[in-house]
Structure formats: C-alpha cells, structure tokens
Amino acid sequence: MKIKTNFHFHTADDPGDPIEYSTKEGIDKAVSLGFGALAITCHQKFAWTEEYAEYAKSKGLLLIRGIEIYVGETMANSRRHVLVLNATPDVESIRTFEALEIYKGEHPEVFVIAAHPYFYGNICLKRFLEKYIYLFDGIELSWFYSRCFNRNVKGRAVAEKYKLPFIATSDTHYFDFLDTNYCTIEAESATPEAIFSALRAGKFENTTSPRNFWRDMVWKQGKFFYRTYLWRKRGCPQNSKAHA
C-alpha cells in the first residue's frame, strides 16, 4: 500500500518555537492533504500522546511517536538536531551521541534521521554526520532549497555513499510547505515497523521541488524567524493552542 508520509512536524506543543496551530489542527490539515502517516517531532519534547494518536486514528492517520533532540559530543555542546522516530518518552534525556548510541541499542525499533545536516549554523550535524554515521538510519532532504541555493546536495552525496535513504520532509512550523516536500512509501501495512522497513529497502518516492528564494526562503522563513525571536525574547510564553 502507498502511504503519504511526513517525518518532521512541529506543533504548538513545541517548547522551542511559536507554532500557531495545535496538534489536532495539524492532524486535521495533514488528513485534508491525504497524508496517511505523520511523525510529531517537537524540539526536545516527546509530545505524542495516546489522545493525539487516537484522534489521528479516527481520521485515518497513523501518528508516529517522535522528537527532535539536540545532541553533541558533550552535554555542554548538545545543539545538533537529530530526529528520533518510534521513540519512547525517556528519549528526552538524550544529549550526547554516546547516549544516543546506548538508546538505539536498547530500542532497536527506533529510526534516526539526520535533520538538515549541512545547513547553516551550529544546530546542524555537518562533520558529525559522517563521524557518527552508524547512528543514522536516514538523512533528511530539507524543503529549504532553491535552484541557486541547495545545501541538500552534500546530504544526498552522503546518503548515497553510505546507502542510506534520503527522505523528503517539510520540517513543518507553518503549513506552506507541508504538501510540497514529503515521501510516499510502498509499505506492507500502515505501521511504523512496515514503514521503516520500506524506507530501509528504498521503497519510497520523494515529492519535492525548489522553493522561490525571495518569497519562500527569505520572506516567509524570515517572518517566522523574526516572530520566533520576539517570542523567545518575551520568555517563550506557552501557546494557548498547545492542547486544543
């Protein structure tokens, strides 16, 4: 069966960014666009709940447990973004590559994706991706690229070098690119196990296209960055939609 999926999705439960839609609103939007599986991946927070999962199931959507953690070689340098899917609540405590390795050993069912590994800033893995390549099951193909600016190129090369799936996601913080960057998986069933098995076997197809540099990457993303800056300056007030 073909399953339209997105593995990088933030909601108002995220403690790190000012997301304007609740988790249930995010589920509703994904369902309206034909998605069959969605991973909730808030920053540093295991935001998946049974209530959300049941709500998604009632709409015909599989809600995958996930998180975007920050790791480093030491606790003091834990800022590199990594997606952990099919996770458990104790994943929140992981702050180092060593801890992630231990966690994977204890939870072989998880699927770890290198998030936007070669983009700007010290939140990206960069040289640490290949150094710790054995920890990763896939590499993200980020929506954030245009014809003249594309930092996915190196990510694709590393994915091909190590024979890892290169997976399109929308890294959703607002809905504009949810339906332009995703992957469709040919899986035996709509379960995390079948979906990850299909990814590892290369049984998926990415849907992706270059963004307009000024409209999408500068104006839209710039507005979000500015709103995030103001939100954090005010002390990151809890979004009222978080549990709507």
Keywords:
244 residues; alpha/beta; TIM Barrel; 9-stranded mixed beta sheet; 9 strands
CATH superfamily: Metal-dependent hydrolases
**Major β-sheet, in short?**
9 strands, mixed
Question: N-to-C terminal Cα separation, in Å?
Answer: 32 Å
CATH architecture: Alpha-Beta Barrel
Q: How many structural domains in the coordinates?
A: 1
Low-pLDDT ranges: none
| Tally of contiguous helical segments | 7
The helix-strand sequence is EHEHEEHEHEHEEHEH
What is the helical fraction, as a range of percent?
Answer: 25-40%
**Overall mean pLDDT:** 95
- Globally, the shape reads globular
Strand order of the largest sheet: 7-6-5-4-3-2-1-8-9
Structural class: alpha/beta
* Backbone CA Rg: 17 Å
Strands, total number: 9
At a glance:
The protein has helices at 23-32, 50-58, 97-106, 127-131, 152-161, 192-200, 213-233; strands spanning 2-9, 37-40, 62-71, 80-85, 111-114, 138-141, 166-168, 182-186, 204-207. With 244 residues, it is of the alpha/beta class.
